[in-house]
Amino acid sequence: MNVSEKKKVFIVMAASGVAFAINYLINFFLTPFITKNLGTDAYGYVTLAKTIASYAVIITTALNSYAARFITIEYHKEDYEKANVYFNSVFFADLFIGGALLVFAILFSGIATFLLNVPEQLRNDVKKLIVLVFLNLFISTGGTVFQAASYIKNKLDVANVIKGISYIVEAAILLALYTSLTPQVYYVGIALCVATIVIVVSNIIITQRYTENLKIDIKRYRYDAVKELVISGIWNSLNSLGNVLNSGLDLLVCTVMLTPVAMGQVSIAKSINSIFTGLYSMAATPFHPLFLKKYACGDKNGLIDQLVFSMKISGLVSNLAFAGFCALGKVYYKLWIPDQDIELIYVLSVISVLSGVLDGAITPLFYIYTLTVKNKIPCLITITGGVLNVLGMYVLVKYTDMGVYSIVITTAIIMLFIEGVTNPIYMSKCLNINVGVIYKPLFMHIVSCLVMTAAFRLIAIIVDPMTWVGLIVTAVLMVVVGVVIHFGIVFGFKNVFSKVGEKIK
User: Fold this and answer.
1) Cα(497)–Cα(479) distance, rounded to whole angstroms?
2) What does pTM read for this prediction?
3) Number of domains forming the structure of the chain
4) pLDDT (tens digit, 9 = 90+) per residue, 417-443?
5) Which phi and psi (to 5°) does residue 402 adopt?
6) Which of 11, 105, 407, 449 is at 20 to 30 A from 5, Cα to Cα?
7) Are residues 35 and 176 in the same domain?
8) How far apart are CA 77 and CA 79, in angstroms?
9) Distance between CA atoms of 497 and 160, rounded to whole angstroms?
10) Structural domain of residue 56, as residue ranges?
11) How far apart are CA 3 and CA 343, in angstroms?
12) Which residue, among 192, 167, 214, has the nearest Cα to 71 in the 3D structure?
Protein backbone atom coordinates (compact mmCIF):
# COMPACT_ATOMS: atom_id res chain seq x y z
CA MET A 1 0.00 0.00 0.00
CA ASN A 2 1.52 3.33 -1.06
CA VAL A 3 1.66 6.51 1.00
CA SER A 4 -1.27 8.24 -0.76
CA GLU A 5 -3.52 5.21 -0.21
CA LYS A 6 -2.59 5.07 3.49
CA LYS A 7 -3.21 8.80 3.82
CA LYS A 8 -6.63 8.43 2.22
CA VAL A 9 -7.52 5.55 4.54
CA PHE A 10 -6.62 7.59 7.62
CA ILE A 11 -8.57 10.61 6.34
CA VAL A 12 -11.66 8.46 5.79
CA MET A 13 -11.17 6.80 9.16
CA ALA A 14 -10.87 10.18 10.89
CA ALA A 15 -14.05 11.42 9.22
CA SER A 16 -15.81 8.20 10.18
CA GLY A 17 -14.53 8.56 13.74
CA VAL A 18 -15.89 12.09 13.99
CA ALA A 19 -19.29 10.93 12.70
CA PHE A 20 -19.27 8.03 15.15
CA ALA A 21 -18.35 10.32 18.05
CA ILE A 22 -21.10 12.80 17.14
CA ASN A 23 -23.68 10.00 17.03
CA TYR A 24 -22.49 8.56 20.36
CA LEU A 25 -22.50 11.90 22.16
CA ILE A 26 -25.92 12.83 20.79
CA ASN A 27 -27.42 9.53 21.93
CA PHE A 28 -25.62 9.77 25.29
CA PHE A 29 -27.25 13.10 26.11
CA LEU A 30 -30.40 13.05 23.98
CA THR A 31 -31.81 9.66 24.98
CA PRO A 32 -32.30 10.60 28.66
CA PHE A 33 -33.84 13.90 27.52
CA ILE A 34 -36.40 12.16 25.28
CA THR A 35 -37.09 9.46 27.86
CA LYS A 36 -37.79 12.15 30.44
CA ASN A 37 -40.28 13.85 28.10
CA LEU A 38 -41.98 10.68 26.83
CA GLY A 39 -41.52 8.19 29.60
CA THR A 40 -39.42 5.04 29.42
CA ASP A 41 -42.31 2.83 28.31
CA ALA A 42 -43.39 5.13 25.49
CA TYR A 43 -39.87 5.59 24.20
CA GLY A 44 -39.44 1.81 24.20
CA TYR A 45 -41.76 1.69 21.19
CA VAL A 46 -39.26 3.77 19.25
CA THR A 47 -36.67 1.00 19.61
CA LEU A 48 -39.32 -1.58 18.78
CA ALA A 49 -40.40 0.22 15.58
CA LYS A 50 -36.79 0.56 14.45
CA THR A 51 -36.26 -3.15 15.16
CA ILE A 52 -39.26 -4.10 13.01
CA ALA A 53 -37.91 -1.95 10.18
CA SER A 54 -34.47 -3.55 10.53
CA TYR A 55 -36.07 -6.95 9.98
CA ALA A 56 -37.70 -5.57 6.82
CA VAL A 57 -34.24 -4.52 5.61
CA ILE A 58 -33.42 -8.22 5.31
CA ILE A 59 -35.69 -8.23 2.24
CA THR A 60 -33.65 -5.50 0.53
CA THR A 61 -30.28 -6.97 1.52
CA ALA A 62 -30.38 -9.56 -1.26
CA LEU A 63 -30.53 -6.81 -3.89
CA ASN A 64 -28.35 -4.12 -2.33
CA SER A 65 -25.50 -6.03 -0.70
CA TYR A 66 -23.65 -6.37 -4.02
CA ALA A 67 -24.90 -3.25 -5.79
CA ALA A 68 -21.80 -1.12 -5.10
CA ARG A 69 -19.52 -4.03 -5.93
CA PHE A 70 -20.99 -4.69 -9.40
CA ILE A 71 -21.34 -1.00 -10.31
CA THR A 72 -17.82 -0.12 -9.12
CA ILE A 73 -16.09 -2.99 -10.92
CA GLU A 74 -17.76 -2.16 -14.24
CA TYR A 75 -17.04 1.55 -13.76
CA HIS A 76 -13.34 0.87 -13.16
CA LYS A 77 -13.32 -1.29 -16.29
CA GLU A 78 -14.79 1.76 -18.08
CA ASP A 79 -17.78 -0.29 -19.19
CA TYR A 80 -20.15 2.56 -18.41
CA GLU A 81 -23.11 1.00 -20.21
CA LYS A 82 -23.03 -2.10 -18.02
CA ALA A 83 -22.42 0.04 -14.92
CA ASN A 84 -25.52 2.06 -15.80
CA VAL A 85 -27.56 -1.12 -16.29
CA TYR A 86 -26.72 -2.23 -12.74
CA PHE A 87 -27.18 1.33 -11.43
CA ASN A 88 -30.66 1.80 -12.88
CA SER A 89 -31.81 -1.76 -12.26
CA VAL A 90 -31.01 -1.41 -8.56
CA PHE A 91 -32.55 2.06 -8.31
CA PHE A 92 -35.94 1.19 -9.79
CA ALA A 93 -36.13 -2.19 -8.06
CA ASP A 94 -35.37 -0.49 -4.73
CA LEU A 95 -38.13 2.06 -5.30
CA PHE A 96 -40.59 -0.77 -5.91
CA ILE A 97 -39.52 -2.80 -2.86
CA GLY A 98 -39.36 0.24 -0.57
CA GLY A 99 -42.76 1.42 -1.80
CA ALA A 100 -44.30 -2.00 -1.22
CA LEU A 101 -42.95 -2.09 2.34
CA LEU A 102 -44.30 1.42 3.00
CA VAL A 103 -47.77 0.48 1.74
CA PHE A 104 -47.66 -2.64 3.91
CA ALA A 105 -46.76 -0.51 6.96
CA ILE A 106 -49.62 1.94 6.26
CA LEU A 107 -52.17 -0.86 5.90
CA PHE A 108 -51.08 -2.93 8.88
CA SER A 109 -49.79 -0.33 11.38
CA GLY A 110 -53.11 -0.45 13.25
CA ILE A 111 -53.00 -4.22 13.55
CA ALA A 112 -49.37 -4.02 14.66
CA THR A 113 -50.20 -1.71 17.57
CA PHE A 114 -52.94 -4.12 18.67
CA LEU A 115 -50.66 -7.19 18.48
CA LEU A 116 -47.92 -5.36 20.36
CA ASN A 117 -50.36 -4.48 23.17
CA VAL A 118 -49.75 -0.76 22.80
CA PRO A 119 -51.79 1.23 25.37
CA GLU A 120 -54.86 2.93 23.93
CA GLN A 121 -53.56 6.45 24.60
CA LEU A 122 -50.39 5.74 22.59
CA ARG A 123 -51.82 3.81 19.64
CA ASN A 124 -52.26 6.75 17.25
CA ASP A 125 -48.75 8.01 18.01
CA VAL A 126 -47.20 4.56 17.56
CA LYS A 127 -49.13 4.09 14.28
CA LYS A 128 -47.64 7.33 12.98
CA LEU A 129 -44.22 6.26 14.26
CA ILE A 130 -44.36 2.91 12.43
CA VAL A 131 -45.41 4.59 9.18
CA LEU A 132 -42.67 7.24 9.50
CA VAL A 133 -40.01 4.62 10.24
CA PHE A 134 -41.03 2.72 7.10
CA LEU A 135 -41.13 6.00 5.15
CA ASN A 136 -37.54 6.46 6.26
CA LEU A 137 -36.83 2.92 5.06
CA PHE A 138 -38.35 3.81 1.66
CA ILE A 139 -36.17 6.94 1.37
CA SER A 140 -32.97 5.19 2.43
CA THR A 141 -33.66 2.15 0.23
CA GLY A 142 -34.36 4.31 -2.80
CA GLY A 143 -31.13 6.22 -2.20
CA THR A 144 -28.93 3.17 -1.62
CA VAL A 145 -27.61 3.03 -5.19
CA PHE A 146 -26.19 6.57 -4.93
CA GLN A 147 -23.70 5.33 -2.32
CA ALA A 148 -21.81 3.59 -5.13
CA ALA A 149 -20.17 6.87 -6.19
CA SER A 150 -18.37 7.10 -2.82
CA TYR A 151 -16.85 3.67 -3.47
CA ILE A 152 -15.98 4.36 -7.11
CA LYS A 153 -14.11 7.60 -6.36
CA ASN A 154 -13.17 6.70 -2.77
CA LYS A 155 -15.10 9.61 -1.28
CA LEU A 156 -16.04 7.84 1.93
CA ASP A 157 -14.50 10.72 3.90
CA VAL A 158 -17.06 13.07 2.35
CA ALA A 159 -19.81 10.52 2.96
CA ASN A 160 -18.86 10.30 6.64
CA VAL A 161 -18.87 14.07 7.04
CA ILE A 162 -22.37 14.08 5.58
CA LYS A 163 -23.38 11.32 7.99
CA GLY A 164 -22.11 13.41 10.91
CA ILE A 165 -24.11 16.41 9.66
CA SER A 166 -27.23 14.23 9.40
CA TYR A 167 -26.84 13.19 13.06
CA ILE A 168 -26.66 16.85 14.08
CA VAL A 169 -29.72 17.69 11.95
CA GLU A 170 -31.66 14.81 13.52
CA ALA A 171 -30.76 15.95 17.04
CA ALA A 172 -31.62 19.60 16.28
CA ILE A 173 -35.06 18.66 14.92
CA LEU A 174 -35.80 16.48 17.96
CA LEU A 175 -34.77 19.22 20.37
CA ALA A 176 -36.85 21.79 18.48
CA LEU A 177 -39.96 19.57 18.42
CA TYR A 178 -39.75 18.42 22.03
CA THR A 179 -39.07 21.89 23.43
CA SER A 180 -41.61 23.84 21.35
CA LEU A 181 -44.48 21.34 20.98
CA THR A 182 -46.27 18.76 23.12
CA PRO A 183 -43.97 15.70 23.24
CA GLN A 184 -45.07 12.87 20.93
CA VAL A 185 -43.50 9.49 20.15
CA TYR A 186 -43.63 9.96 16.38
CA TYR A 187 -41.37 13.04 16.46
CA VAL A 188 -38.45 10.60 16.39
CA GLY A 189 -39.72 9.30 13.04
CA ILE A 190 -39.92 12.83 11.59
CA ALA A 191 -36.34 13.62 12.61
CA LEU A 192 -35.16 10.29 11.23
CA CYS A 193 -36.74 10.97 7.82
CA VAL A 194 -35.23 14.45 7.53
CA ALA A 195 -31.76 13.15 8.46
CA THR A 196 -32.02 10.41 5.83
CA ILE A 197 -33.12 12.93 3.19
CA VAL A 198 -29.96 14.94 3.96
CA ILE A 199 -27.82 11.85 3.31
CA VAL A 200 -29.64 10.78 0.14
CA VAL A 201 -29.64 14.26 -1.42
CA SER A 202 -25.94 14.63 -0.62
CA ASN A 203 -25.15 11.23 -2.19
CA ILE A 204 -27.06 12.26 -5.32
CA ILE A 205 -24.92 15.40 -5.56
CA ILE A 206 -21.73 13.31 -5.10
CA THR A 207 -22.91 10.96 -7.86
CA GLN A 208 -23.59 13.83 -10.25
CA ARG A 209 -20.26 15.51 -9.50
CA TYR A 210 -17.83 12.59 -9.43
CA THR A 211 -19.47 9.90 -11.58
CA GLU A 212 -21.03 11.87 -14.40
CA ASN A 213 -21.27 8.69 -16.50
CA LEU A 214 -23.96 7.29 -14.17
CA LYS A 215 -27.42 8.57 -15.13
CA ILE A 216 -30.95 7.69 -14.07
CA ASP A 217 -32.63 6.16 -17.11
CA ILE A 218 -35.50 3.70 -16.81
CA LYS A 219 -34.66 2.39 -20.30
CA ARG A 220 -31.51 0.85 -18.77
CA TYR A 221 -33.49 -1.15 -16.24
CA ARG A 222 -32.94 -4.87 -16.77
CA TYR A 223 -34.78 -7.62 -14.97
CA ASP A 224 -31.83 -9.97 -15.61
CA ALA A 225 -29.49 -7.58 -13.77
CA VAL A 226 -31.86 -7.51 -10.78
CA LYS A 227 -32.05 -11.30 -10.87
CA GLU A 228 -28.24 -11.57 -10.97
CA LEU A 229 -27.84 -9.26 -7.98
CA VAL A 230 -30.57 -10.99 -5.95
CA ILE A 231 -29.11 -14.44 -6.62
CA SER A 232 -25.67 -13.16 -5.59
CA GLY A 233 -27.02 -11.48 -2.47
CA ILE A 234 -29.68 -13.93 -1.29
CA TRP A 235 -27.21 -15.57 1.02
CA ASN A 236 -26.50 -12.20 2.62
CA SER A 237 -30.20 -11.95 3.47
CA LEU A 238 -30.07 -15.38 5.04
CA ASN A 239 -26.89 -14.32 6.84
CA SER A 240 -28.83 -11.43 8.35
CA LEU A 241 -31.31 -13.95 9.69
CA GLY A 242 -28.39 -15.86 11.19
CA ASN A 243 -27.21 -12.68 12.88
CA VAL A 244 -30.67 -12.28 14.40
CA LEU A 245 -30.30 -15.74 15.91
CA ASN A 246 -26.80 -14.89 17.17
CA SER A 247 -27.57 -11.54 18.73
CA GLY A 248 -31.22 -10.68 18.28
CA LEU A 249 -32.95 -13.35 20.39
CA ASP A 250 -30.93 -13.18 23.61
CA LEU A 251 -33.16 -10.49 25.09
CA LEU A 252 -36.24 -12.56 24.23
CA VAL A 253 -34.71 -15.60 25.96
CA CYS A 254 -34.01 -13.41 29.01
CA THR A 255 -37.60 -12.21 29.08
CA VAL A 256 -39.13 -15.68 28.70
CA MET A 257 -36.75 -17.78 30.81
CA LEU A 258 -35.28 -15.31 33.30
CA THR A 259 -36.57 -11.91 34.45
CA PRO A 260 -37.14 -8.43 33.01
CA VAL A 261 -34.31 -7.24 35.27
CA ALA A 262 -31.95 -9.75 33.65
CA MET A 263 -33.09 -8.55 30.24
CA GLY A 264 -32.24 -5.00 31.22
CA GLN A 265 -28.78 -6.02 32.44
CA VAL A 266 -28.00 -7.93 29.24
CA SER A 267 -29.37 -5.00 27.24
CA ILE A 268 -26.87 -2.63 28.88
CA ALA A 269 -24.05 -5.09 28.23
CA LYS A 270 -25.11 -5.41 24.58
CA SER A 271 -25.11 -1.63 24.20
CA ILE A 272 -21.35 -1.63 24.76
CA ASN A 273 -20.96 -4.41 22.22
CA SER A 274 -23.00 -2.37 19.72
CA ILE A 275 -20.67 0.59 20.22
CA PHE A 276 -17.65 -1.64 19.65
CA THR A 277 -19.21 -3.13 16.50
CA GLY A 278 -19.68 0.40 15.19
CA LEU A 279 -16.02 1.14 15.90
CA TYR A 280 -14.89 -1.97 14.02
CA SER A 281 -17.03 -1.02 11.04
CA MET A 282 -15.65 2.52 11.18
CA ALA A 283 -12.10 1.19 10.98
CA ALA A 284 -12.82 -1.39 8.26
CA THR A 285 -15.06 0.48 5.79
CA PRO A 286 -12.39 2.96 4.54
CA PHE A 287 -10.48 0.04 3.05
CA HIS A 288 -13.38 -1.28 0.94
CA PRO A 289 -12.93 1.04 -2.08
CA LEU A 290 -9.24 0.14 -2.19
CA PHE A 291 -10.07 -3.57 -2.04
CA LEU A 292 -12.56 -3.15 -4.87
CA LYS A 293 -10.10 -1.27 -7.08
CA LYS A 294 -7.31 -3.82 -6.57
CA TYR A 295 -9.68 -6.71 -7.20
CA ALA A 296 -11.20 -5.07 -10.28
CA CYS A 297 -7.70 -4.49 -11.70
CA GLY A 298 -6.59 -8.06 -10.93
CA ASP A 299 -3.81 -6.92 -8.57
CA LYS A 300 -3.83 -9.90 -6.17
CA ASN A 301 -0.56 -9.05 -4.41
CA GLY A 302 -1.69 -5.46 -3.90
CA LEU A 303 -5.00 -6.72 -2.53
CA ILE A 304 -3.28 -9.06 -0.05
CA ASP A 305 -1.00 -6.22 1.08
CA GLN A 306 -4.01 -4.01 1.73
CA LEU A 307 -5.90 -6.78 3.53
CA VAL A 308 -3.02 -7.40 5.94
CA PHE A 309 -2.53 -3.68 6.56
CA SER A 310 -6.27 -3.25 7.22
CA MET A 311 -6.12 -6.03 9.83
CA LYS A 312 -3.32 -4.22 11.66
CA ILE A 313 -5.09 -0.84 11.68
CA SER A 314 -8.55 -2.18 12.49
CA GLY A 315 -6.99 -4.37 15.15
CA LEU A 316 -5.51 -1.28 16.80
CA VAL A 317 -9.02 0.19 17.19
CA SER A 318 -10.48 -3.02 18.62
CA ASN A 319 -7.57 -3.56 21.01
CA LEU A 320 -7.83 0.00 22.33
CA ALA A 321 -11.57 -0.46 22.84
CA PHE A 322 -11.35 -3.86 24.54
CA ALA A 323 -8.32 -3.15 26.75
CA GLY A 324 -9.69 0.28 27.62
CA PHE A 325 -13.06 -1.11 28.66
CA CYS A 326 -11.47 -3.91 30.72
CA ALA A 327 -9.52 -1.26 32.62
CA LEU A 328 -12.12 1.52 32.90
CA GLY A 329 -15.47 -0.23 32.41
CA LYS A 330 -16.39 -0.31 36.10
CA VAL A 331 -15.63 3.39 36.53
CA TYR A 332 -17.68 4.18 33.41
CA TYR A 333 -20.71 2.31 34.74
CA LYS A 334 -20.37 3.80 38.25
CA LEU A 335 -20.51 7.29 36.77
CA TRP A 336 -23.20 6.57 34.15
CA ILE A 337 -25.58 4.17 35.95
CA PRO A 338 -24.62 4.25 39.65
CA ASP A 339 -27.91 2.67 40.80
CA GLN A 340 -27.35 -0.59 38.87
CA ASP A 341 -25.50 -3.81 39.79
CA ILE A 342 -22.15 -2.57 38.46
CA GLU A 343 -20.14 -5.74 39.10
CA LEU A 344 -22.60 -7.98 37.28
CA ILE A 345 -23.10 -5.64 34.32
CA TYR A 346 -19.33 -5.12 33.99
CA VAL A 347 -18.65 -8.89 33.82
CA LEU A 348 -21.52 -9.40 31.36
CA SER A 349 -20.14 -6.58 29.20
CA VAL A 350 -16.58 -7.96 29.16
CA ILE A 351 -17.86 -11.38 28.11
CA SER A 352 -20.08 -9.76 25.45
CA VAL A 353 -17.17 -7.91 23.84
CA LEU A 354 -14.70 -10.80 24.22
CA SER A 355 -15.23 -11.99 20.64
CA GLY A 356 -14.38 -8.47 19.55
CA VAL A 357 -10.72 -9.23 20.25
CA LEU A 358 -10.77 -11.29 17.03
CA ASP A 359 -13.68 -9.53 15.33
CA GLY A 360 -11.89 -6.19 15.24
CA ALA A 361 -9.00 -7.54 13.18
CA ILE A 362 -11.17 -9.78 11.00
CA THR A 363 -13.92 -7.25 10.16
CA PRO A 364 -12.15 -5.67 7.12
CA LEU A 365 -11.71 -9.16 5.65
CA PHE A 366 -15.45 -9.82 5.53
CA TYR A 367 -15.41 -7.80 2.32
CA ILE A 368 -13.60 -10.75 0.71
CA TYR A 369 -16.97 -12.50 0.51
CA THR A 370 -18.38 -9.53 -1.39
CA LEU A 371 -15.40 -9.30 -3.73
CA THR A 372 -15.46 -12.99 -4.62
CA VAL A 373 -19.26 -13.37 -4.40
CA LYS A 374 -18.74 -16.39 -2.16
CA ASN A 375 -21.10 -15.90 0.74
CA LYS A 376 -23.00 -19.20 0.83
CA ILE A 377 -20.64 -21.00 3.22
CA PRO A 378 -20.27 -18.02 5.64
CA CYS A 379 -24.05 -17.72 5.66
CA LEU A 380 -24.55 -21.40 6.52
CA ILE A 381 -21.92 -21.09 9.26
CA THR A 382 -23.67 -18.01 10.70
CA ILE A 383 -27.08 -19.70 10.66
CA THR A 384 -25.66 -22.88 12.22
CA GLY A 385 -23.91 -20.80 14.87
CA GLY A 386 -27.14 -18.92 15.53
CA VAL A 387 -29.15 -22.11 16.03
CA LEU A 388 -26.46 -23.53 18.34
CA ASN A 389 -26.41 -20.23 20.21
CA VAL A 390 -30.15 -20.29 20.92
CA LEU A 391 -30.02 -23.98 21.90
CA GLY A 392 -26.97 -23.34 24.11
CA MET A 393 -28.71 -20.49 25.90
CA TYR A 394 -31.79 -22.64 26.50
CA VAL A 395 -29.83 -25.62 27.86
CA LEU A 396 -27.59 -23.56 30.15
CA VAL A 397 -30.45 -21.46 31.54
CA LYS A 398 -32.73 -24.46 32.09
CA TYR A 399 -30.25 -27.05 33.40
CA THR A 400 -27.52 -25.02 35.15
CA ASP A 401 -27.27 -22.30 37.78
CA MET A 402 -25.37 -19.93 35.48
CA GLY A 403 -28.43 -17.73 35.06
CA VAL A 404 -27.89 -14.53 33.09
CA TYR A 405 -24.26 -15.44 32.38
CA SER A 406 -25.54 -18.21 30.10
CA ILE A 407 -26.89 -15.63 27.67
CA VAL A 408 -23.57 -13.93 26.96
CA ILE A 409 -21.22 -16.92 27.38
CA THR A 410 -22.80 -19.02 24.61
CA THR A 411 -22.68 -16.12 22.15
CA ALA A 412 -19.05 -15.36 23.04
CA ILE A 413 -17.88 -18.98 22.59
CA ILE A 414 -19.61 -19.45 19.25
CA MET A 415 -18.47 -16.10 17.87
CA LEU A 416 -14.86 -16.71 18.95
CA PHE A 417 -14.88 -20.01 17.08
CA ILE A 418 -16.40 -18.47 13.94
CA GLU A 419 -14.05 -15.47 13.92
CA GLY A 420 -10.94 -17.43 14.90
CA VAL A 421 -11.37 -20.63 12.90
CA THR A 422 -14.02 -20.80 10.19
CA ASN A 423 -13.73 -17.27 8.79
CA PRO A 424 -9.91 -17.12 8.38
CA ILE A 425 -9.85 -20.57 6.76
CA TYR A 426 -12.63 -19.83 4.28
CA MET A 427 -11.41 -16.30 3.56
CA SER A 428 -8.03 -17.67 2.54
CA LYS A 429 -9.75 -20.27 0.37
CA CYS A 430 -11.82 -17.58 -1.39
CA LEU A 431 -8.64 -15.75 -2.39
CA ASN A 432 -6.63 -18.97 -2.92
CA ILE A 433 -3.91 -17.92 -0.48
CA ASN A 434 -2.14 -19.65 2.40
CA VAL A 435 -4.17 -19.34 5.62
CA GLY A 436 -0.97 -18.20 7.34
CA VAL A 437 -1.31 -14.86 5.52
CA ILE A 438 -4.29 -14.17 7.79
CA TYR A 439 -3.23 -16.02 10.93
CA LYS A 440 0.18 -14.34 11.24
CA PRO A 441 -1.15 -10.76 11.72
CA LEU A 442 -4.06 -12.17 13.74
CA PHE A 443 -1.65 -13.84 16.18
CA MET A 444 0.37 -10.63 16.60
CA HIS A 445 -2.90 -8.79 17.11
CA ILE A 446 -3.82 -11.10 20.01
CA VAL A 447 -0.37 -10.62 21.59
CA SER A 448 -0.81 -6.86 21.32
CA CYS A 449 -4.24 -7.11 22.96
CA LEU A 450 -2.90 -9.10 25.94
CA VAL A 451 0.02 -6.72 26.52
CA MET A 452 -2.21 -3.66 26.07
CA THR A 453 -4.84 -4.99 28.50
CA ALA A 454 -2.20 -5.65 31.19
CA ALA A 455 -0.68 -2.18 30.69
CA PHE A 456 -4.06 -0.45 30.85
CA ARG A 457 -5.04 -2.30 34.04
CA LEU A 458 -1.79 -1.13 35.63
CA ILE A 459 -2.45 2.47 34.56
CA ALA A 460 -5.99 2.30 35.97
CA ILE A 461 -4.67 1.03 39.33
CA ILE A 462 -2.06 3.80 39.51
CA VAL A 463 -4.30 6.68 38.39
CA ASP A 464 -7.57 5.39 39.95
CA PRO A 465 -9.94 7.83 38.16
CA MET A 466 -13.15 8.61 40.05
CA THR A 467 -14.69 11.41 37.93
CA TRP A 468 -15.65 11.94 34.28
CA VAL A 469 -12.68 14.24 33.79
CA GLY A 470 -10.35 11.69 35.36
CA LEU A 471 -11.87 8.95 33.21
CA ILE A 472 -11.37 10.93 29.99
CA VAL A 473 -7.79 11.97 30.86
CA THR A 474 -6.89 8.38 31.75
CA ALA A 475 -8.47 7.10 28.54
CA VAL A 476 -6.41 9.56 26.47
CA LEU A 477 -3.23 8.40 28.25
CA MET A 478 -4.15 4.79 27.53
CA VAL A 479 -4.69 5.54 23.84
CA VAL A 480 -1.16 6.98 23.56
CA VAL A 481 0.38 4.01 25.37
CA GLY A 482 -1.78 1.56 23.40
CA VAL A 483 -0.75 2.98 20.03
CA VAL A 484 2.94 2.59 20.96
CA ILE A 485 2.38 -0.99 22.15
CA HIS A 486 0.37 -2.03 19.09
CA PHE A 487 2.65 -0.47 16.50
CA GLY A 488 5.69 -1.91 18.26
CA ILE A 489 4.31 -5.46 18.41
CA VAL A 490 2.29 -5.64 15.18
CA PHE A 491 4.50 -3.56 12.89
CA GLY A 492 7.75 -4.24 14.76
CA PHE A 493 9.68 -1.71 16.86
CA LYS A 494 12.67 -1.88 14.54
CA ASN A 495 10.54 -1.22 11.46
CA VAL A 496 8.65 1.65 13.13
CA PHE A 497 11.82 3.37 14.40
CA SER A 498 13.55 3.05 11.01
CA LYS A 499 10.58 4.70 9.24
CA VAL A 500 10.50 7.48 11.85
CA GLY A 501 14.23 8.02 11.28
CA GLU A 502 13.68 8.25 7.54
CA LYS A 503 10.98 10.88 8.07
CA ILE A 504 13.29 12.91 10.31
CA LYS A 505 16.09 12.78 7.74
Assistant:
1) 19
2) 0.72
3) 2
4) 988 899 999 999 988 888 999 999 999
5) -70, -25
6) 449
7) yes
8) 5
9) 32
10) 1-229
11) 46
12) 214
